[in-house]
Amino acid sequence: MTHNSAKADPAPLGLMGFGMTTVLLNLHNSGIVPMGGAILAMGLVFGGATQFVAGLLEYGNRNTFGMTAFMSYGAFWLSLVVLLFLPHWGLVAPSSPALMGSYLLMWGLFTAIMTIGTLRASRMHQVVFSSLTVLFLLLGLAEILEQPMLTVIAGYEGLFCGFSAIYLAAVELLAAQPGHVAAPVAVMVPPAEVAA
């Protein structure tokens, strides 16, 4: 996406926060590891707060897409951890499967809109956002239909999504360092530039 070259690019930080947290949560969803404090702490700090900060930095770079993506997904991680904690603290009843599924499907709708915004970005941006759309759809349906096997399938798809974001973060981070060869992300050329 577009960045002000006079400032540091916060996108690798936000993408890494998103990717690493997504991988950890989907290790749980796929049944590889149980839910634990490491996942929740990562959701609060790196997936939540750090992504939110990356979004604020994107605001400073006048990057509306980056600001919206990082602040929104930072808020997603914070809200998810709060959703899991509130019932344990006895403050609210746990969300019903229908309500939790609706929550996840709303995030899927938001992500589908964001995916449209990647159509003029690199192929890797498209991979990250489209695989995240599928992940939210699978997780939402798993909750609403109460089908645990769909959660496992979503977990493996989520691992793909998370590692895709980590790859994109690494490419963007290393490309900004002198002497590093850029790895492929299949950059899209806007139609106006092709015509020129």
TrEMBL record:
Compartment annotation: Membrane
- The primary site where this protein sits is membrane
* Transmembrane annotation, as ranges: 32-57, 64-86, 98-119, 126-145, 151-170
| Keyword Membrane among UniProt keywords | yes
Q: Which Pfam families match?
A: Gpr1_Fun34_YaaH (PF01184)
| Listed InterPro entries | Gpr1/Fun34/SatP-like, SatP
Keywords, A to Z, come to: Membrane, Transmembrane, Transmembrane helix
Q: How does it sit in the membrane?
A: Multi-pass membrane protein
Q: Would you identify the family this protein belongs to, as annotated?
A: Belongs to the acetate uptake transporter (AceTr) (TC 2.A.96) family.
Designated name of the protein: Acetate uptake transporter
* Protein's organism: Novacetimonas hansenii (Komagataeibacter hansenii)
